Amino acid sequence: MTTTARSWSEMFGASERLSIDPAFAELRREQSLRRVRLPYGEPAWLVTRYEDAKVVLGDPRFSRAAARGRDEPRTRFHVGSPGSLLHHDPPEHSRLRRLVAKAFTARRVEGLRPRAQQIADQLIDRMMAQGPPAELVEDFALPLPITVICELLGVPVEDRVDFRLWSDAFLSTTRFTPDQVTEYVGRMREYMAGLIAEHRETPRDDLIGALVTARDEQDRLSEEELLAMAEGILVAGHETTASQIPNFVYTLLTHPEQLAALRADPGLIPQAVEELMRYVPLGGGAGSARYALEDVELGGVTVRAGEPVVVALQSANRDESIYTHPDTLDLHRQEASHVGFGHGPHHCLGAQLARMELQVALGALLRRLPGLRFAGTEQDIVWKTGTATRGPARLPITWDRP
Amino acid sequence: MTWLIEVDASTCIGSGICAGTAPGHFAVVDGVSHPVRAEVDPADPAIDAAESCPVEAITIRDKETGETLAPEE
């Protein structure tokens, strides 16, 4: 059954703050798979239920590599580099992912925790010396993950202003024009090529250094794959966490009884991060399309071979068949794991790093800034627009002076 | 040669990476991965899965020698 595709903006209103359009709940109830037309690319099936989402993301009958040569349904103009992890299926995908997976295991990430803690503490020292108030995004949420990923990857943190702008272009939905996106994506490429050349000249013990060795001495990836990997890790490695830190703070400040529970029991922080990952709709749109390699029965329809499917993770995470009172933030919740980091072979490479950084960030903010609250009112928060990740562009905060 | 596949259920986070990478070797049931069979013939995708697991919950060993084949240290 192929019904007419409706446009995303017709189906779902403009998302305000961190709200989720009630139309998702209706779709989950009535028609898990629905024809949709995203701002760019061909029409697709939209998946809204948790179990269906896991099938599309995890089952090898659905392919990312098959998107090659197709006009992918997407919310962003930029389709990504052809050499990136997200453009391959296993086993080609495994060849690339294995080159970097070790750097992001839970064990390796634990080794980075003291350094992340130190960075967080230094940022808070500065906020306390200059405030209250402070601006959470610029003063804390951005520099923490940027510093961590720069040190891990081997990118000079001083270049932050430049690569932030180019990184925003990768994620732009409407913020930049297509010409601007093309220009900034090109500048990121030049920048990364320059950094890789520097690493070749002076070998260094960081992830770009390891990738250069894997290319030059072991021929395990192409130059295009090397560039795409380094760019992908730099962009995805900071923007998401930098958005989730203020998103989590905003969510906690607007759920005072949950915040009080967390203050009373800091041991709850890891579990709180999981529930916040479930609850906060970081990506307001749909993820990268998967193409069916054969006819697949799913959610009461037949997805035909060759048809693209997109998943709304924010909807899957609120599926009432999986979660009790899914629209309630409950930091003590112990139910099925969320799909905030995706599922299947493309499950977020940096998930363990993000978890650690978010735990460190929340712990440090709550411990060191007593009485943490909005400076002014909720109206003083500026929300990002025209980009794939939702979150505050500016979140003024204040706290009790000691 | 025979390989032994084990998944530490208490460590597994149910990412689904293994089942998507080596669908013949792993299945995620109720959010936890299990080997489809504990003893298998050598197969690269199984190693890929073990090496890609973010929490290193998968171990692959040589049945004869007991040597750990994946994950690498």
From TrEMBL, chain A:
Cited Gene3D superfamilies: Cytochrome P450 (1.10.630.10)
Pfam family, one: p450
Cited InterPro entries: Cyt_P450, Cyt_P450_B, Cyt_P450_CS, Cyt_P450_sf
Highest taxon listed in the record's lineage: Bacteria
Signal peptide (residue range): none
Region entry Disordered, spans: 67-91
Swiss-Prot/TrEMBL keywords: Heme, Iron, Metal-binding, Monooxygenase, Oxidoreductase
PANTHER family: CYTOCHROME P450 YJIB-RELATED (PTHR46696:SF1), P450, PUTATIVE (EUROFUNG)-RELATED (PTHR46696)
Family: Belongs to the cytochrome P450 family.
The protein's name: Cytochrome P450
UniProtKB/TrEMBL annotation, chain B:
InterPro entries, per the entry: 3Fe4S_ferredoxin (IPR001080), Fe-S_cluster_ET (IPR051269)
Superkingdom in the source lineage: Bacteria
Alphabetically ordered keywords of this record: 3Fe-4S, Electron transport, Iron, Iron-sulfur, Metal-binding, Transport
Cofactor: [3Fe-4S] cluster
Keyword Electron transport: yes
Biological role: Ferredoxins are iron-sulfur proteins that transfer electrons in a wide variety of metabolic reactions.
Protein name: Ferredoxin
Species of the source: Actinoallomurus oryzae
